[in-house]
Structure prediction request, 817 residues.
Amino acid sequence: MLKPLLVFLVLGPLVGLSAYLCKVDLAGFLPGLVKGMEVLRFFFPPDWSSLREMVGPALVTVLLAAVATPLGVLLSFFFGLAGARNLSPTWLRSIARTLIGVERALPEIIVLLLLVAALGVGPFPGVIALAIGSVGMLGKLFADAIEELDAKVLESVATVGATHSQIIRFAVLPEVMPALLSNSIFRFEVNLRASVLLGAVGAGGIGFELQKAMALLEYERAMMAVLVTLLLVFGAERVSDYLRRRVLDGGKLA
Amino acid sequence: MLNVEQLTKKLPDGRALLKGISFRVARGEFVGVLGASGAGKSLTLRCILGLTQTDGGTATLSSNDGQTFELTTCKGRCQREARRRMGVIFQGFNLVKRLRVIDNVMIGRLAQIHPLRSWLYGFTDAEAAEALEALRRVKMEKYADRITGSLSGGEMQRVAIARAVFQKPSIYLADEPIASLDPSNSLAIMKLLQPLARETPVIGVFHQPEMTARFCTRVIAIKHGKVVYDGNPVLSQSQLEDIYGDELMQVLRPASAPVVDTGILATPYISRVEETAADLLAKQTT
Amino acid sequence: MNTTAAPLPVLSCVPPSVVFRRRTAIIVGVVTFVTAAGVFLNFKPWMLFTDFHHLVRLADEMIPPNVALLWKKTALYQSVAETVAMAFLGTLVGGLVAFVLAFVAAKNTTPHPWLRNAARLGFGVERATPNFVVLLILFIAFGFGPYAAMIALAIGSVGMFGKLFADAIEQVDPAPCEAVASVGASPFQVIRYAVIPQVLPSVVANGFYAFDVNMRAAIALGVYGGGGIGFELQLAMKVLRYPDVLALILLVIVLITGMERVSDLIRRSLLRSEILK
Prediction:
């Protein structure tokens, strides 16, 4: 039984160190848990009367994601083209891939904070932050998908005398379209959740309502906002799953 | 008309792959290019198409509309104009699998429409009707709306030919067009290419001497990067041995009957390959 | 050829004009929707140009980044360590809990079908709740700082990985399980000897992926008050020390990219050394 022992020997110190750094207070865990439970009591029953006021912000949150996602997809498409080895000169590919990598490493919230610092609060920085945020994930996926295309097909279209852009339109786009659509729909889901989180930091919408309620200690109202959020997220998940299945089963073409 | 003179291609370490290939293809000809693996047949074609850089020599295309293109040196716009006048058929069909058959055919004329137009609205209904005509020639018009990926190998190759036909080229180039097909499909494709050659010259790289013997008007053989034969499509046993060397047995397809109705090599399944194929060939040429 | 040719003889396929009309309709629909939504949101895309100078001004204040901060302020190293520790512990604890709960949430190992649905619902609800809500509750329970943030990350991991692990368990090949059961093993033994070996590679792979995700989440939670480098960053922003902000952002990028590489390396050497049986 050497293996589990080895695992413990390696993980043990790491866990210990991490616990120290996180100021883990094992003694205070149980009391903390109890206190947490007590606080939870304040959240119920949820304040149904505030539901009407939440519809507007909920719509804002959804629309933020709905506007940001197509913009992000468009942007990512160009990054994807630039980042593909088989379509793009080496220097351009390196730049594109590096930018994509940098963006992926930045949590969206930082992008939003920067934009808010420059442009103030509101939907505009929110949309831009989400759109830029999509580039990290979608840009990489698109570039990878394009690189996996059969080079012979691209070569074959080139031999009829097609220009670079025609090759993209007639050979690259159709082949890559299902992956493009599927990932974009998934990204909408991600952006919706992000939109809620960003709302709390200034982008508006249901996230903002939630944060406001918590700050004012109106916990039943906050619970209502959470319920609305749950509804939005579950709804988006359902719709997204359905649409993605339709696309991948051989739906729309370029 | 295609005129190839002294085409050379070297590897970075100096070894020569093509050592001065020269030949002509004129109107009405169906030229078959034979040779052992690695002899340089497909490489020659790729050099002509500009898919590979050459180290010397020229390949001149005189198109039907009176223009001349120096294929080894032209780049960019000139290369696109030249390619527009060459209809190419590949071994792997190389069609865009997610598009419909009719769309793949229409791709043939991409060079003839403005790129802006191709992004905005693509092709017109009139052009689609012409594409259907091309499909009719290869007997695939019923498949026009099908997704290309759902077709079989032989069907896809016919679509590839339709695309080349739709292009209205001055010459057809085929790189082992039947190598991936079973015998009956191979025959069908050769039967399509032969009448095509009467109006527009066809030059094809093949691995099947019995096919070129039957369908081509002329055969060129390449060995170790040089043209060693240029003439009558029917080759004798010794000529074939000279070209193929040890590969001869695989090339003559001793197995799987009844192969085709070529009448040349309707060979039944044979277990002792070495002797019998040679015997048969001896029988044919006497 | 006359491109405005009248109806053509029976085209046995969908003509390009029809395809074009359909496609344009879709594009126009999407554009209209996005524009309408934008108008509703008061989203003014031209602001990008009119207010561009704000971005330039911000960039101007941020450059050159105060990279000296990185070696002057040694407290930063503790912050970085804090963030990594949060992500690590959160992934570990959350992963363990998720692993155990996944057996309840998997069709083939659950004691009761309704327990399975309850577990799956629980995972979904957790995933859908914004994690700053969880964090705020935890702040009340455990005070500000990395302890609460770590627990928030752990809970978040349960939501994320409970589902993934449960799916992996459900996709296990039943044959080895039947084989082990047939020699008279108890359900726990079946799990130990037939299910776990099959699921382990995917669990480990997901674990590393979870760590990557949690690294980013740790930074985000830090911004809300959870400590670590995220907290430093929002602090620098509050006091308008923008060169510091850029330096910290660069640090974040280096940190996350670096962690990704390290975790990738460890994962690959783990797979190679076959500690996973």
Observations:
- Chain C is about 80% helix and 0% strand.
- The radius of gyration of chain C is 27 Å.
- Residues 7 and 102 of chain C are 62 Å apart (CA to CA).
- Residues 1-6 of chain C have pLDDT under 50 and may be disordered.
